[in-house]
User: Fold this.
Amino acid sequence: MFNRLLTGLALSACSLLLTLGVLEFATRRGAFANPQPRSTKLDVEIRSPVREPNFRGFEPRLPRETDTFRILIVGDSFSWGHGVHPEDSFPRRLETRLDALSRGDDFEVVNWSRPGWNTVVEYRSVESNIDEISPDLLLLTFVLNDPEPFDLQKLSVLRADLQRRQPRVQPSAYLYSRSQFYAMAWDRIENMRIHRAYSTYYHSLYEGPDWKNCLKALERFRDLGHARSIPMALLLFPVFDSPMNDDYAYADLHDKLRGIGRSLGIPVLDLLEAYRGVDVYRLALVPYTDAHPNELAHRIAADAILDYLARGRLVPKLNYKPQRQRDRWKKKGEREASKDNGAP
Assistant:
């Protein structure tokens, strides 16, 4: 009886080792590898002072001298174009599209943005320069982390659980450094933990004094536009770490912000709808690692914003027929996925 038990345990151990060996071999051969992201992340140094915008290209002429229709886009790293070429950022693409569709008007899109800004700092920067900028339209980009505090020390404490971890205890650390299968399994479990931590973190931002400061800044943006008869809209971006469908982790926050827009009298363009149905893996700068929008996501945003401005008659008349951009990108993605899977 005892010998049979030992024999059974030995066979189970051998079977387990064989299975792990096969999995390790398959991992090294790339059987479980995700396809490479479409965009290559760019590292760009920011040289401007922390409370000033960082222009990637030509700076706007201040004060304004021409009869150009000027659109002011205010925001953080999303509108600045973190990780993509300047010409691929949605503000630059929007300007290019407007010029191409113009019926004689000149357009200028001023990208008044800087990575790391929140809504409070954005207001302070714009308020002190609004008369020199003299825009015809103000578009305020809003990302779900905009209620964050600007104080770096306070911010680092709040974001402690968002840091990627690696095993430190033996034998886990040893296996992580030697086994590709173990490292892959660890990283995927860590990705799930970080995603849950981000969801908890984002939701925690919508309470307390920093959230109240953010709301006050939104009110001041509205009043700033009203006082100068400058139309304003809020561009609400999703976070590209969650499926762009009914499983999107932050839909309740989008509902909350659209409601706040209605209560403040600020029109809101919720860009989540433009991405709905598109595989989020095709939209993130570095899937599972960096949830900023990549080149494709910027392109979709520019098309959705153009459609919104033309439909709402917020810009001079264009040679433009509204298109269903979301369906167009979804169908294109399905065709490309079929090609990747070897379909004829």
The first helix runs from residue 2 to 28. The beta strands are 69-75, 107-113, 137-142, 232-236, 268-270, 284-286, 290-293. DSSP finds 13 helices and seven strands in the chain.
